[in-house]
Amino acid sequence: MPIQIRKTRQKDAIRTAFLEADRPLSPDEALQEAQKLVEGVSVATVYRNINSLLEDKWLVPIDLPGQAARYEVAGKEHHHHFQCTVCMKTYELSGCALQVKPKLPRGFKATGHEFFVYGTCVDCS
């Protein structure tokens, strides 16, 4: 007998929140957006579903220096992020034009890089 995946309106609302935002969301931002679609979505439901979507590899974490993680839909090409210093929303920057060749210690090998841009978004400018 195949395993049946439980599909709920709340999980659909959380997925829709990430898809429609098309940017990394904090759990609180996902909660606010999901509540617009389904009444009664709780913060516990958002955290539980984010963890489930991470396990399913549907979401990936975006780690911002000194802040709680944001999450975005998985499967996108390598890209970087912009964070507004006023509203603290995080946005995706398409592609990567960085040609970084850091001088690493002997024997070290770089396997990736992170680059964040900070400033004000159009709504806060």
Task: Describe what you observe in this structure.
- By secondary structure, the chain is an alpha+beta fold.
- The chain has one domain: Arc Repressor Mutant, subunit A (Orthogonal Bundle), CATH 1.10.10.10.
- It has helices at 9-21, 27-37, 43-55; strands at 59-62, 70-73, 80-84, 90-93, 116-119.
- The strands form two sheets. The chain has a three-stranded mixed sheet with strand order 4-3-5, with no helix packed on it.
- Strand 1 and strand 2 form a beta hairpin.
- Helix 1 (9-21) packs across helix 2 and helix 2 crosses helix 3 (43-55).
- Mean pLDDT is 88; it is low at 1-6.
- Its cofactor is Zn(2+); Mn(2+); Fe(2+).
- Keywords: DNA-binding, Iron, Metal-binding, Repressor, Transcription, Transcription regulation, Zinc.
- Zn(2+) binds at residues 84, 87, 121, 124.
- It comes from Granulicella arctica.
